[in-house]
Specification:
Largest sheet: 7 strands, mixed
Number of helices: 23
Length: 447
Amino acid sequence: MQIKIPENANKIIHTLMEHGHEAYVVGGCVRDSILNKVPMDWDITTSASPMEVKNLFGRTIDTGIQHGTVTVMMGKEAYEVTTYRVDGEYEDHRRPKEVLFTKSLKEDLKRRDFTINAMAYNEVEGLQDLFDGIGDLERGVIRCVGVPEERFDEDALRILRAVRFSAQLDFIIDEGTKQAIKTRYQHLKDISAERIQVELTKLLTSDHPEKLLEAKELGITSVVLPEFDAMVETEQNNPHHCYNVGVHTIHAIKAIEPEPILRWTMLLHDVAKPLKRETDEKGIDHFHGHDTEGADMAKKILRRMKLDNHTIHTVSHLVLWHDYHFQAPVTLKKVRRTMSKVGTELFPVLLKVQRADATAQSDFRREEKFRVIEEAEERYYEVLAKKQCVSMKELAINGRDLIENGVEPGVMMGAILNSLLEQVIEDPTLNEKDILLSLVAKQQKIK
């Protein structure tokens, strides 16, 4: 088997070998190369100590030297070079108390999470596969190196990583590894929210986000996302639905492109339904107010997950508006009003969310829903083409113009501008400076 290693990574490996050290590319880059995927990073493992690595290369950065990692700069390219190591005792299911360096490749590979990530390669000695990673790649299996309970006791995040790799590669999880997850999933409470969020985002944006249901079965989401458990346990006896809330959510996630904000929106768009479920006298379930409550819950969940403010604001805003439905016929005026509230840039994103939501529902009135969404999209582009005003920044006058025409600064000025915007949204032909100033003068005269 041959793997094409980038030229600069190869130079690092050969430099280390020429000076009497062992060196290989290792981990994910080997796995991805075997799967004919393009590796994101090329990590190198070596028997050389960190100081020996630093002495051999002109430009290095001590990125994690206490754990044996030195970043070697080759021009503008950076490569992490890590000394073979053996982890000391783990106390918190996150990190070892100490790291001991070793000269044994086998000892280094033994501490890695899964067999498919525990392979090393160089052009001289070829593939080093001591735990049948190749076999597991061929079988499509995620299996821990050695005793799975020990691997999860060392770093509990591996529990979630097992499902994430399963989702990204469309592999099954080995039965022994599954059983170990069921006995160790509570250790995830010791893992930082940031690390959990990274794995969840990768799972959500994979080709198989439905693996989140397996995470629920294994107990994982009861710790990292208990709201999802409640969703899976909430039925939707309603003509518009054919799945429970959780399964509907998974279908909605799969119906939208794998971009983090979109996938998080679909995950959380119905998060409040378990709290808002009401059943009428005919046995029909209703979820009034789940959009408003859901927006608040989405904010809290995303903050808990330590996502960035832009994602938190955008997702919660889309959750708030996801259940807004245009009534046919969809007019320019209706679209202008909605654009003004949702935002011009987010309006087409909202339509994507609504389309994915409808796709994951029953076929009851589905074609009608799609037709209305398409009409709204057409009207949206018509508003843009005609450059019709839907926001304050597009209004033909501003606060300075009002001051110059005798309006005193303060709360009243904001009220006047909002009133003018409302009138312009109703009738775009009013958005001329002279016309708007005459409306202001008339209003002031009446007062």
